[in-house]
Amino acid sequence: MKVAGTRQSTENTIRKNSYLTWLNRHEILLLSHIDDDDDDDTDDEEEKDVSHVLVAHVLESIEKFVMDAFVHESLHSSNSSSNDNNEDDVKVNNLLAVEDLQIAKYDQGGKFEEHHDGYGRFLTVLTYLNGVGGTFFPFAQTRQASSSCSNNGNDGGAKGEVELQLQSRDGLLVVGKEGIEAYTSSTLSAAGGGGATSGSSPADQDKIKPATVVHIEPGDAIVFYNYLLGERDLRSVHESLTVPCEKWIATNWVRCEKLTGPLANLYYDEIILPSASSSSSSSMRTE
Question: Which helix (H) or strand (E) holds 278?
Fold first, then answer.
């Protein structure tokens, strides 16, 4: 990941000690065609061409699975339909697209502060490639969703106290082979929940106390929806806590103007989203 074609985080961003790259299946296939035009084609180049094609097919299969498993069929049909009387309306309101697969690597000490995926991304599929978790949803189990998403849950005052209590009552932590001890601390008070107490050590400042823990293994994925009635859903706000070891993840995002645009509330009655939690609950263990 520390090579050309990737983007490294800086100290001035909310993502620390990490590298990003994106895989576009069409660009990968184009590379194989460019190699075919080379008159000096060798066995190694032929193998490379085959690899490009295989990777492109894998990416296409992943996109198809995400769409079939987690996007309601009404969105599939509306995305492919045409309206002769108002073609522009169809293009604006029925846009459905899967972004390029993003691969992220976190070095030891890497983190991604609290954020909402947003910007039209109504669905997130997050796959843990090497079995290291550390994803924390402070409001995942809050009964009443809110679109008032803050970028930082520890801003002090009454608002900060309420958010700390919510993290203790409603917070959900995804943890892998690194163990829950990497993110939690015995010095946290039961009343304070998600924040560090005044008596905690500097090493505990980023520690949290989740209400629920979900254990993952290499290759497991979690799925969550980011919007509700066209507004950002507070329950999908999440962060990647400081990891104690190298972490690799892959992320698929699906965009849909019908669910995230200014007219999203008009389509609520005709679209019923499948439950991501019920789809993946069989492979997850909680405590």
Answer: helix 276-280
CB 17 within 8 A of CB 245: no
Q: Is 70 exposed, middle or buried (0-12, 13-18, 19+ CB in 10 A)?
A: buried
Residues 13 and 222: their CA atoms lie apart, in Å, by: 25
CA atoms within 13 A of residue 179's CA, in its CB half-sphere: 4
**Over the stretch 54-84, which tens digit does the pLDDT of each residue have?**
999 999 999 999 999 999 887 876 555 544 4
| Nearest-angstrom CA–CA distance, 9 and 16 | 6
Task: Point out the least confidently predicted range of 19-28, 62-71, 272-281.
Answer: 272-281
For β-strands 172-175 and 212-215, DSSP reports them as parallel
Q: Which pTM value belongs to this model?
A: 0.75
For residue 184, what is the DSSP state? B
What's the rounded Cα separation, in Å, for the pair 194 and 242? 15
User: What secondary structure does DSSP assign to 137-172, as a single string?
Assistant: ETTTT-SS--S---S-S---HHHHHHHHHHHHHH-E
